[in-house]
């Protein structure tokens, strides 16, 4: 139950979203602000495939951060649906954080997104220069100047999710632009994602850590069943199915004599047990769903709707 004892007059609550091209650190930034892992992260681009909400609680405010997939020029039907998800999210939030990494020059992708954001007239846009731990002071200063030339922003703030530098400042800047409102979520709730979805994402993260570059976009995970074992309240049985697009990809995920699949299961189980606070038996299966990223019927079956 949400505590509504705080009146709207002295409490602010609302939604912010981070947008940027793939692999600029949006998910890592949200996890750092929330204070726990609610979105998976990877060095591979386009890891995020859903709009995941993380909740930051303060005595006088509640900031709900919506992490979105990386915005890009899509090459598949999946890519088109992910971009559509980003655009619909931008119209529903109170403030937008446009993320540009401090350690990389501004490129076509950043300009493409800046042009899209310029069409959003009523929502304030804060430029976030991320990954400052990977850049020198001179690089950061140059990037702040370069970002200021991209568009008119409400504010520009350099941050580092890894070191924690300026995270409180960023949160202050975002909260300042939220409407007066009672809390929207119960105190202590850090995300509204169903546990089954979070478990599937942790499995996908474990796969991404061990496969070569061409596989990330070809992997999908569906959790078929998740329930306590009969007579064992301390043990949770999870049955999950991984899908790839080609037989050669299946062989890569399985590895020599099943070594990579075993490693994926071990790493995923550790993360899931930390998330759920209970012992887990994880049953992983893998199948080929040919060209699922381009097939509307298979996309719906895997949870990617129009």
Highlighted features:
6-stranded mixed β-sheet; globular; 3-stranded mixed β-sheet; alpha/beta
Low-confidence stretches: 3-7, 42-49
The shape is globular
* Percentage of residues assigned to helices: 25-40%
Residue share in β-strands: 15-25%
Average of pLDDT: 81
Radius of gyration: 20 Å
Distance N terminus to C terminus?
32 Å
What structural category arises from helix and sheet content? alpha/beta
Largest sheet, in brief, is: 6 strands, mixed
Strand adjacency order, main sheet: 2-3-1-4-5-6
Order of helices and strands: EHEEHEHEHEHHEEHHEH
- The count of DSSP E runs of length 2 or more, i.e. the number of strands, is 9
SS element count, helices: 9
Map the helices and strands.
Elements: E1 12-19, H1 26-34, E2 52-58, E3 61-67, H2 77-90, E4 95-101, H3 108-118, E5 125-130, H4 137-148, E6 155-158, H5 167-175, H6 195-208, E7 220-229, E8 232-244, H7 247-254, H8 259-276, E9 279-288, H9 296-301
Parallel strand pairs: 1-3, 1-4, 4-5, 5-6, 8-9
Antiparallel strand pairs: 2-3, 7-8
Structure description:
There is one protein chain. By secondary structure, this protein is α/β, with parallel strands linked by helices. Helix content is 33%, strand content 24%. The chain is built from 9 helices and 9 strands. It has helices at residues 26-34, 77-90, 108-118, 137-148, 167-175, 195-208, 247-254, 259-276, 296-301, and strands spanning 12-19, 52-58, 61-67, 95-101, 125-130, 155-158, 220-229, 232-244, 279-288. A 6-stranded mixed β-sheet has the order 2-3-1-4-5-6, with helices on both faces. It has a 3-stranded mixed β-sheet with strand order 7-8-9. Helix 6 runs antiparallel to helix 8 (259-276). The chain is globular, with a radius of gyration of 20 Å.
């Amino acid at each position: 139950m949400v505590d509504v004892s705080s009146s709207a007059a002295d409490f602010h609550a609302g939604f912010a979203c981070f947008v940027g091209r793939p692999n600029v650190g949006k998910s890592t930034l949200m996890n750092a602000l929330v204070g726990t892992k609610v979105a998976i992260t990877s060095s591979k681009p386009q890891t995020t495939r859903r709009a995941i909400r993380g909740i930051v609680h303060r005595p006088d405010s509640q900031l709900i951060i919506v992490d979105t997939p990386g915005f890009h020029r899509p090459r598949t039907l999946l890519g088109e649906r992910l971009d559509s998800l980003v655009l619909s999210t931008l119209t529903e939030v109170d403030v937008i954080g446009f993320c540009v990494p401090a350690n990389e020059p501004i490129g076509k992708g950043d300009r493409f997104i800046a042009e899209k954001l310029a069409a959003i007239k009523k929502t304030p846009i804060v430029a976030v220069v991320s990954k400052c731990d990977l850049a020198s002071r001179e690089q950061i200063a140059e990037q702040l100047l370069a970002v200021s030339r991209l568009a008119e922003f409400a504010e520009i703030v350099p941050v580092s999710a890894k070191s924690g530098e300026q995270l409180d400042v960023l949160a202050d800047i975002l909260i300042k632009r939220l409407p007066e409102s009672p809390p929207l979520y119960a105190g202590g709730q850090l995300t509204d994602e169903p546990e089954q979805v979070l478990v599937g994402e942790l499995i996908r993260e474990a796969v991404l850590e061990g496969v070569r570059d061409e596989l990330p976009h070809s992997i999908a995970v569906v959790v078929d069943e998740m329930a306590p074992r009969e007579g064992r309240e301390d043990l949770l049985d999870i049955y999950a199915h991984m899908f790839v697009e080609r037989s050669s990809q299946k062989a890569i995920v399985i590895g020599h004599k099943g070594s990579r699949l075993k490693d994926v299961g071990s790493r995923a189980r550790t993360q899931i047990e930390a998330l759920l606070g209970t012992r887990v038996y994880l049953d992983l299966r893998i199948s080929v769903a040919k060209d699922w990223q381009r097939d509307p019927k298979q996309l719906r079956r895997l949870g990617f709707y129009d």
